[in-house]
Amino acid sequence: MAQKIRVGVLISGGGTNLQAIIDAYRSNRIDARVVFVGSDNPEAYGLKRAQKLGIPTFAVDYRAIIKETRGKPLKDPVPEGFDLETVLAKQRVSPLSSDRAKVEQYFRSRAIAEASLLKEMEAYPFDLLVLAGFMRIITPYFIDRVNSDPSQPRIMNIHPSLLPSFPGPDGYGDTYRYGCKVGGCTVHFVDYGEDTGRIIGQKAFEITPDDTIDTVREKGLKLEWQLYPVCIQLFAEGRLRMDRP
Ligand code: GRF
């Protein structure tokens, strides 16, 4: 086994992907270990999964931060180094409301939350940041601070569809409702858009007439649990080339 890479994980909910990653390294299937688990949701069950195993956890309550900043004058303090114009120029998340005040409010509140995440993460140096059901858009403010070398991206996400089809929060639902006969999941690097980053790995499954939205989700999740550890191992082995598709 090679040197283990240090993986930080961000979650929002149940954390079955987190569990699959933990199981993979505990059974020596990947050269990685999880050094922290963070969440935007203090109630996320995945935090308990980590705590049971002695993995450090933290939560930044996004909902409270968004509520707190709503309707406040835009002159309120923003995190050090945050420049709204730079973030707006880089971001490719769409569609965003064309109402300028709303857009500013969106990115300002996210930067406040992301600055807290970054502060918590400082205590745990990591090689790779894995989004495992983290249901928040991360903005250029956060991405640039993690990807200090832009040619070496180190944030991965798992998405519940065969990208580039069906980006957004409900990939399996969108796949099923469209009437697709094949569904799947995708692991990709995170860039400034929504689910648009370079694809690392994908797995597909058949959707039959007997399937329901629930069985589609079940089939997809089972494949996610296989796919994420494989992609983390590719990263650990330095086999992800950035200079070709
Ligand atoms: C997964 O389907 C993932 O693709 C999506 O959110 C779900 C998270 O599930 N982004 P879990 O928290 O890992 O169980």
Task: Describe the protein's architecture and organization.
This protein has one domain: Formyl transferase, N-terminal domain (Rossmann fold). The chain starts with a strand and ends in a 9-residue tail after the last helix. With 245 residues, the chain is an alpha/beta fold. It has a 7-stranded mixed β-sheet, sandwiched between helices. Helix 2 links the parallel strand 2 and strand 3 (57-59). The mean pLDDT is 93. 39% of the residues lie in helices and 18% in strands. The protein contains 8 helices and 7 strands. Helix 5 (100-121) runs parallel beside helix 6 (140-146). The longest helix is centred in the C-terminal third of the chain and has 24 residues, at 213-236.
Produce a short descriptive summary.
With 245 residues, the chain is of the alpha/beta class. 39% of the residues lie in helices and 18% in strands.
Rg, please? 18 Å
Tally the beta strands. 7
Roughly what percent helix?
Answer: 25-40%
Based on the coordinates given, report the CATH architecture. Answer: 3-Layer(aba) Sandwich
CATH level 3 topology: Rossmann fold
Please provide the ordered H/E string of secondary-structure elements. Answer: EHEHEHHHEHEHEEH
CATH homology group: Formyl transferase, N-terminal domain
